[in-house]
Amino acid sequence: MLKFKSFYSALLFVFILIIFSGCVSRQESGKSVITVWHWMTDREPAFKELSKRYEAKTGVKVSFELYVPSDAYSQKVRAAAQGANLPDIFGILGEKRDFSSFIKAGFILELTPYMDEDNAKWKNYFFAKALAVNEFNEGNSYDIKPGIYGVPIDIMTIQMVYNKALFKQLGLNPNRPPQTFAELLDIGKKIKAANLQGLVSGWGEIWMIDCLANNYAFNIMGKDKVIATIKGEVPYTDPDWIKVLSLFKDMQESGLLASGLVTMVNKTAEQLFANERAVFAFNGSWCVNVYKEMNPKLEYDAFLPPKVTDKYPMAIWGGAGSSFMVSGRSKNKEEAVKFLRWLTEAPQQAYLAEATNNLPANKESINKIPQVLANFARAMDSATHPRVWGVSEFSPVIEALDKGIQSIIIGEKTPEEVAGEVQRIKERELKKRR
Amino acid sequence: MKIKSALENYIFVLPAVLIFSIFYIIPFFSVLQLGFYDWDGILPTKIFIGLSNFKEIFSDRIWWQSLWQSGYITLIALTFQNALAFLLAWACDREIRMKNFYRVIFFIPPVLSEVVVGLVWQWILNGNYGILNHWLTHFGFANLTRNWLSDPNTALTMVAIVHCWKGFGWGFLLFLAGLQTIPRELYEAAHVDGANAWQSFKSVTIPMMISVVVLVAILTILGTMQVFVLIYTMTGGGPGYHTEVPVLRILASMRGSSRFGYACAQGITFGVILCMISFVQLIVSRKAKN
Fold first, then answer.
1. Which domains does chain A have, with CATH numbers?
2. Quick check: bond before B239 cis, omega within 30?
3. Nearest-by-Cβ selection for A259 from B15, B43, B127
4. What ipTM does the predicted assembly reach?
5. Which of A21-35, A268-282, B187-201 has the highest mean predicted lDDT (pLDDT)?
6. Partner residues linked to A163 by β-bridges
7. Which of A122, A391, B91, B187 has the maximum number of C-beta atoms within 10 A of its C-beta?
C-alpha cells in the first residue's frame, strides 16, 4: 500500500510539474529567432531555403512553421491571438473585416513608417494592387487608422484557362480563346455535342462562384453599382443583378458547365483540367504550379472571362496572393520587419517565383517568369478584390448568393427567386446593424 | 490522522478533477456564456446581446433544414443500417462457414478514415467517371445514371447510404456481442418445445436483445445527428443547402461568418436537442422493457 502511495505521489508530482512547465515562458537565447507561421505547403521548401540564406547573411535565424490545411491554420491564428501567443510574423486568411479586427485588437503592427522610409523605397517594390489589399484608406468603413498593415509576398489573378488540345478536337482555333460571352456559350454547345466536359472549378467551395459572379457584375453594371449594392443602396433584385444570375442559367443550358460542378472542390477541378478531361477551368494563377506538377505536358493558356457587354470593363479578382503581417506584440518587431523587407527584394522574389511558379509581388521580378504565368500577370490591369473595395458584404449574404447560384445551376430556382432570397437576407442583416 | 487521510484522498483525485474541469467544465460554461454575446473570435471586446442569438436560431430556416436533414440520415441509419447490422450479426452468430472472415470484413468500414471513405465514395458516385454509373450503363440501366451527389433528389440519400455503410460495423459488433451472451440452453428448450427458427427468434432472441438494441439506437442517433466529416468531404453541404447538417452550419457560422457567439448558441441549442432526444428514447425504451 505504501509503495503504491509513493508511486502515485511521484506520478502526481510529475503531473504538476508538466502543468506548470506549460505556464513558464520560453527562455530567450542570445541569438535572435524570428518565427513565421504560414499555410503554404507548396512554398515551404523555398521558404526554408530563403531562411538559410538570411541566416547566413545576417546571423538571424528565421523559423518557418507550416500549419495545414488552411482552415486549421486560420483557427490556430485566431486561437493564438486570444492567448497572446502570436508568432512574430503570420498571415491572415479571411475577409477584410477579420483583418481589421486583428488590427483593432492590436495584434498587427502598422508598417506605413517602414514602407515610407528612404522616399518610400520599400513601398515602391510592389505592384500598387498588391499593396492595396493590405492597405486601409482614409475614411474606410472599418474605422482603422489609414495605413499599410501587411506585406504582399506574391500576387495572383483568377481567370479562365482553356485546353488547347481539346480546342483543336472541337474544331476551334487553339490560339484564340472566346472573346465574348456569346462565343463562350457557342463553345458550350459544341462541348455538349462532343460529349466533353466544359468548365470545371471549385464551385462546391463557394467563394469561387462569388468571384465569377462579381466579375460579371462589374462588367454588366460597373464598380459603383456593385459597391452601392454592398452598401445597401441598390437591391439584389435590380435587373442588372438578375442578368448576372441569369448568366449561370445560360451557361448551364448551353452545356458549358461540367457535370457535378456545384459540389466540386477545386482540387478535383484541377485534376480534371490537368488530366485533359475538361475544356475550361476557372482558377487562380497558383494553378500554373499545380498543373505543372500534375501534367507537365498540358498545353493551355489563360484568358479573361469573356465580356457580356462593352458598357463596363471586365474585372477579375486579383492582387496580393498571400501576405505576411508583423505581430504588434512581438519582441522582435524590428527584426521581423527587416526580414520581410529582405524577403520582398528582387532576388528573393525572383527565387520564390522560379521555385514555386507564383507571381512575385515585386515589380522588378516580373520579367523572369514563364509565359503562362506572364499571361496571368498581364491581367493585373483588370484586377480588383473585395479587400480593396472599402466595404465588405455580409457573410450570410455572400453565402445566400453562392448557394442560390448553385440552385440555379441545378435548375431548382430561377434567377428572380434567388435574387429575392438574397435581398431578404441583405435586409435582415442591414436591420440587425441599424 | 483522519484529516491527513482525507487530504490525501483529495490530492489523489485532484488530477482527474483538474483535467475534467479544464477540458470539459470550463469550455462548456465558456460556450454557454459566449452564446449570449456578439463576438467575431478576434476582438478582445464582446458585446452582450442577451438571448438575441437564440431568438435568431428560431427564425434561421437553413438551421432547421439542416436539423431535419440530419434527422433524415438518422432515420435511415436507425432502420436500414441497424437492421442490416442485426441481420448480419445474427447470421455470423450461427454456425456458418468462414464466419470469422465475415466478422473481420464487416468491421473494416468503421475503422477506415472518414475522409478516405468520403473521397472514395465521391469517386464511386461521380457522374462522369464514377464506377456506379459505369456499371449501371454496362448492365443496361443507362437511364438511371446521374450525378448522384450533385442532384438534389439523390444527394442526401446517397450521403445517408454511405454513412450507413461506414457505420453499420459498430452495430454489427454490439449486436454480435449481445447475441453471444444469450444462453444456448434457451434455444434448445425452445426447440424441445417445438418452436421453429422464426418462433425462437421472436420469443428468445428479440426479448434478450432489447437492451442492446436500445444501446445501439442511442449510439446511432447521437453519432448520426453529429455526422460531419463524411458530408464535408463528399458534398460540403451542397448542392445548395441539400446536404447541410447542424455541425456544418455551426462551422459556417464560426469560420465563414466569424460569428462565434451565434455558433456557440447553435452548439448549445443542438446539444439541448440531442439531450432531449436521448431522454425521450430512454423513457420509451424503459416502457418497452417493462
1. 33-155+319-387 (3.40.190.10), 157-318+391-433 (3.40.190.10)
2. yes
3. B127
4. 0.81
5. A268-282
6. A300
7. A122
Amino acid, res. A106: G
Cα distances from A180 to residues A106, A161, A185, B16, B289, in angstroms, run 47, 15, 9, 68, 71
Residue predicted with more confidence, A2 or A243: A243
The residue of chain A with its CA nearest to that of B39 is A101
Sign, CA dihedral A78-A232-A414-B64, equals: positive
Contact B238 A403 (CB under 8 A): yes
Helix axis angle, A346-356 to A333-343, nearest 10°: 70
Pairing verdict, β A280-284 and A61-66: unpaired
Q: What angle do CA B13, B18, B19 make, to 5 degrees?
A: 105
**C-alpha to C-alpha distance for A414 and A405, rounded to whole angstroms:** 9
Task: Say yes or no for a CB contact (<8 Å) between A204 and B236.
Answer: yes
Residues of A in Cβ contact (< 8 Å) with B240: 262, 403-404, 406-407, 410, 412
Report the percentage of chain A scoring pLDDT > 70: 93
pLDDT band at residue A4 using 50, 70 and 90 as cut-offs: low
Contact across the interface for B240 and A74, Cβ inside 8 Å: no
Element of type H or E holding B222: helix B206-225
pLDDT of residue A374: 77
The Cα–Cα gap between B166 and A230 comes to 44
Using CA atoms, how far apart are residues B73 and B163, in angstroms rounded to an integer?
A: 8
DSSP label of A362: B
Of A340, A309, A339, A346, whose CA–CA distance to A322 is shortest? A340
CA–CA dist A156, A373 (Å, integer): 10
Do A174 and A362 touch, CB atoms closer than 8 A? no
List, in order of start, the domains of chain B with CATH numbers: 59-289 (1.10.3720.10)
Residues of B in contact with A98 (CB under 8 A): 40, 42, 258
The residue among A430, A383, A400 whose CA lies nearest residue A230 is A430
pTM, entire model: 0.84
Look at residue A27 in the predicted model and tell me its pLDDT: 46
Identify the weakest region by mean pLDDT among A107-116, A326-335, B207-216.
B207-216
Give the pLDDT band (50/70/90) at residue A433. confident
**pLDDT band with cut points at 50, 70 and 90 for residue B99:** confident
Q: Does B239 touch chain A (CB under 8 A)?
A: yes
A277 contacts chain B (CB < 8 A): yes
DSSP string, A318-330: EEEEEEEEEBTT-
pLDDT of residue A42: 82
Identity of the residue in B40, B129, B238 whose CB atom sits nearest the CB atom of A406: B238
Say which DSSP state A365 is in: G
- For residue B239, which residues of chain A lie inside 8 Å, CB to CB? 262-263, 406-407, 409-410, 412
What residues 217-246 of chain A have any CB closer than 8 A to a CB of chain B?
Answer: none
Q: What is the pLDDT of residue A357?
A: 85
- The Cα of B262 is separated from the nearest Cα of chain A by a number of Å equal to 12
Please write the tens of the pLDDT for every residue from A117-163: 999 999 999 988 889 889 998 888 888 999 999 999 988 899 999 99
Contacts of B12 in chain A (CB under 8 A): 8, 12
The nearest alpha carbon in chain A to B52 belongs to A432
Residue B289 has pLDDT above 80, yes or no: no
**Whether pLDDT at B78 is above 80:** yes
| Strand A316-326, strand B47-48: pairing | unpaired
What is the crossing angle of helices A371-378 and A287-294, to 10°? 160
**Residue-averaged pLDDT of chain B:** 90
